[in-house]
Amino acid sequence: MQSLFSSNNRNADRLMTATMLGILLTATATLRADDFVLSKGDNIGNMLGGITFGDGDMVSYCSDTNMASILFAETTISPSPDIDAFTILPNGNYVLSVLFNNRTLGGIEFDDGDLVEYNPVTGAASFFHLGEADFTGATANVGDINAVDFVDDRYIVFSLTAASTTFRGVDYSDGDLIQYSISDGIVTVLVNEATLCDDGDCDIDAVHVLSNGNYVMSTFFDEMISGQLFLNGDLFEYNPTTDTATLYFSESNFTDANGHNIDAVHVFETPMGDNLGDMNCSGAVDLNDVAPFVQALLDPAGYNAAFPDCDITRADTDESGGNDGGDIAGFIERLL
Predict the structure, then answer these.
(1) Is the Cα torsion angle 328, 331, 333, 336 positive or negative in sign?
(2) Which pLDDT belongs to residue 19?
(3) Contact (CB, 8 A) for 147 and 160
(4) Distance between CA 229 and CA 227 in Å, rounded?
């Protein structure tokens, strides 16, 4: 009886896995692997990848297909905001800051110097470590956070709008990239504007820290960075070790007649050293991995024959020690 029961369980598990994989294949038939999300400073009529959006929308964009979609709608915040800074946490929640005071999201009211964590599933919001009261200074827009990322689950990397702002007893400029450790309160200047900008004066408007240690950035004005001109609607990748910069995204991709000031960015990338889900050993998790992933779960021998140089344990995305239906959610997360 026990043997029959176990066999029935295995068959039921395989049936459930096959059903879920069928749903996965259907869902990914039209899926695109987006590169990043961004916001733009102009209030209305911004156009990218076939959609029109406002300055409070976060737009998810795929360069391969030149397609975009709204990830976060400005109507979620009341009154209508201009998103100044945005990043996505490992748990899927968003951290953001806006241009104006007295905005409401998820039941809390906040100002332009506050960082707010928002859960897109539950709609709940809470304050995220730094607030307007942490900043002082005599110039306008003191405490207005202009760019943000969250790194290694402990570092808030950010820039400020005001030309001079005091934080933890030290004065910072709007072109400085600052790192704040939430565990011990230590503040570090990662990049100062005198080094970043050829004229020594610029305003960082968006930032994302890449896993290779480089920064994807945009500036409020057109700027010369490492001898190259980048427009304020461009994203550029800056290497702080070599002090070099390359174009990451061109403002020519926008199809509207507005100005093209990028206000915030978050880049999607597979963590370095994590090859889970990369079933064809290409170095990236993308749509070409869907069929091999399905094969690894349903026909391990066939997968090993088709990909003799790849390790089938790459399908174990939940790191449970085996390849089964529990790995599907983790695979989808890496795919997106």
Answers:
(1) negative
(2) 62
(3) no
(4) 7
> What is the CA 166 to chain-centroid distance, rounded?
28
User: What is the tens place of the pLDDT at every residue in 108-163?
Assistant: 999 988 999 999 989 999 999 999 899 987 565 677 899 999 999 999 999 998 88
* Cα 108 to Cα 292: distance, rounded to the nearest angstrom: 45
- CA distance linking residue 271 with residue 267, whole number of Å: 11
**Tokens at residue 68, please?**
């975009």
Question: Tens of pLDDT along 2-27?
Answer: 443 345 555 655 665 556 666 555 54
Which phi and psi (to 5°) does residue 313 adopt? -70, -5
d(CA 60, CA 82): 17
Q: What share of the chain is helix, strand, coil (3-state, %, to 5)?
A: 25, 35, 45
Helix (H) or strand (E) holding 311: none
**In the predicted structure, residue 271 carries a pLDDT above the cut 70:** no
Predicted confidence band at 192 (pLDDT cuts at 50, 70, 90)?
A: very high
Domain 36-267 has CATH 2.110.10: yes
Question: In this structure, how many other beta carbons lie within 10 angstroms of the beta carbon of residue 179?
Answer: 18
Q: Where are the domains of the chain?
A: 2-31+273-335, 36-267
The position carrying tokens 């990369």 is: 278
Radius of gyration of the CA atoms of the chain, in A: 22
pLDDT classification of 258: cutoffs 50, 70, 90: confident
